[in-house]
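Observation: inputs received (chain + XIL).
Thought: call the complex predictor directly.
Action: predict_structure
Action Input:
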Amino acid sequence: AIALRSSARTKGLLFGAAVNYNTLSSDQAYANLVAQQCAILAPALELKWDVLRPGSDQFNFTRADWMAQFARSHGMLFRGHTLVWHQGLPNWFASTVNKQNAEKYLTAHISRVAGHYAGQMHSWDVVNEAIEPQVQRADKLRSTPWLRFLGPEYIDIAFRAAAAADPRALLTYNDFGIEHDTPQAETKRTAVLRLLERLKSRGTPIQALGIQGHLFGHPDSVKFTQIRRFLRNVADLGLQIMITELDVNDQQLPRDAAVRDRAVAKIYADFLAVVLDEPAVTTIMTWGISDRYTWLASKKPREDGGRLRPLPFDAQFKPKPAWQSLASAI
Ligand code: XIL
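Observation:
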């Protein structure tokens, strides 16, 4: 079968995945699969603060550099995830960063890390998951250390620092929970759109929206109609759109693997049909690529104890119906 990276390219799209260093460097067959299928690679863990910064004045780029080299040697683009996130912070963070020094820590981190890969990054998730629909604030900005120390400005500060450090990377705001047709998602879409409008109107350097795409299968049908209008609104702001972390959580789907795989594949197909109808969508990336290694395994397990099957390849690296959905769509 033709690789996803090639079929995507014929349609002017990029296909890729996020994977981690441990699996990529230790499992040769997995590394081959990633190199065969992907035109763009993102480190799932290795550019987060807790991995990069073992101490407040130490940076360790070893793993991320190895992955950048892997990407380069296989003709893949490299994508940065992520400069600002409320999770994945090192232990020293809480006792070290405060209101007085927060801006310095934020800009110094971004200059150092984005500067390290300047000219080599396809795109950077500058800010990840800044919006939380449950909060009381009108702007729905999540309560993070950065918001508490610097106010909503922290997002502008981060994008400006990233643009200064790497003027060539596509600077992206990345978030989840805007994919499915749910009231909560509609609240979140509105808040994300307001944020993007605010950034654009102030001239903050942002060029893309990343939609994570952590989808979930449900015994009742899953719908993606409301996202269509949202994508159009985002595109009207002049932003590119990337699907950055696609997978389908099958935790609640039936036991039979073939039945489950078909349900998962339908969710991939239905979602891709809607998002690829929007010309601003340029990139589709999955979070992992084989069921052998999925972050969902460490979350809620299936009640029947079965292995989760959220990705395009099974645990033996055989393409699944979800792969077929991708291959037909991209
Ligand atoms: C996840 C990793 O896959 C896990 O291994 C880690 O324990 C927590 O982070 N959205 C994101 C990613 O933006 O950074 C998250 O990655 C998955 C959800």
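Thought: report the result.
Final Answer: The domain at 4-94+125-132+174-190+208-329 is CATH 3.20.20.80 (TIM Barrel). The chain is about 40% helix and 15% strand.
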